[in-house]
Specification:
four-stranded antiparallel β-sheet; Immunoglobulin-like; 268 residues; 37% strand
Length: 268
């Protein structure tokens, strides 16, 4: 038997004893094109990296991570591995003055972009968006932020990064959001209970939340209850459920199956 064939056979037989597997795949040149999301202009000098997320199972012959820098036309070519068992490709794109973008979708990360039909990546210029949610003075109870994707890249006007939304009598704040606010890369950093967002009463007093300060169980604060996500084609739609009140208020409302019925009716 050929020595290399014998060695390969032994590896296949012995690998299960070590709890791993051998990765067999091919590399294909994949074309990426990076653009400014608001101007549509190509972004030269952007860094595009494809990495492979590991699960608990070890693998022999791991796929190699690759990276490249875009040229003057915003293009880069990377050799992307295909047919990677138990490995999930992630594309991370960054450029000076832009917000870093990470895509965890195999469809976007590993598709075969060609010179005619590249994998398009859109970046927003810094800074991260800041969002203020205005709550009526003295309000205590549940409310919802209903985030709906729209088919445009510009939120209100080009370059705008500060946004204000008021809680209406319905208790549901609906946001028709571009990727600037709806993409997960910005959603968690941008306004979902983080330091770059805030909740205030109409009189300007800030309401404590997890991104603002520590607070006790008896303090009035914005308390997150749940996040509802939806299947395709509404996979970018999120409904965030909150309570303005104490820890007991949140517990009582969370245990009431009818507490959010009116909010959901308003959001349909």
């Amino acid at each position: 038997m050929n020595r290399s064939v014998l060695l390969l056979t032994l590896l296949v037989l012995l690998t299960p004893w070590f709890g791993g597997c051998i990765g067999f795949y091919c590399y294909y040149p994949t074309h990426y094109a990076v653009y400014d999301a608001e101007t549509g202009q190509p972004v030269a000098g952007a860094s595009v990296h494809v990495q492979y997320m590991h699960n608990m199972m070890p693998m022999l012959n791991e796929p190699r991570n690759v990276g490249a820098i875009t040229d003057e036309s915003g293009r880069a070519i990377l050799d992307v591995a295909t047919h990677c068992p138990n490995r999930y490709p992630t594309v991370r794109t960054s450029a000076h003055g832009y917000i870093e973008y990470g895509v965890g979708s195999p469809r976007e990360a590993g598709q075969h972009g060609t010179s005619l039909y590249p994998v398009n990546v859109y970046l927003y210029k810094e800074p991260l968006p800041k969002v203020t949610f205005v709550i009526p003075d003295g309000y205590r109870g549940p409310f919802m932020i209903d985030l709906r994707p729209v088919n445009t890249w510009i939120q209100d006007e080009p370059g705008k990064r500060e946004f204000t939304f008021h809680l209406p009598p319905s208790g549901c704040i609906r946001i028709n959001a571009t990727p600037l606010l709806s993409d997960s890369r910005l959603r968690d950093m941008g306004f979902h209970l983080s330091g770059s967002s805030r909740f205030v009463y109409q009189n300007g007093t800030r309401i404590p939340d997890i991104g603002y300060q520590r607070y006790g169980p008896d303090d009035i604060a914005v308390r997150g209850l749940n996040v509802r996500t939806f299947p395709a084609p509404l996979s970018s739609t999120y409904q965030y459920l909150f309570v303005v009140g104490t820890a007991n208020d949140a517990k009582e409302i969370a245990g009431n199956p009818n507490a959010f019925d009116a909010l959901f009716d308003q959001s349909r």
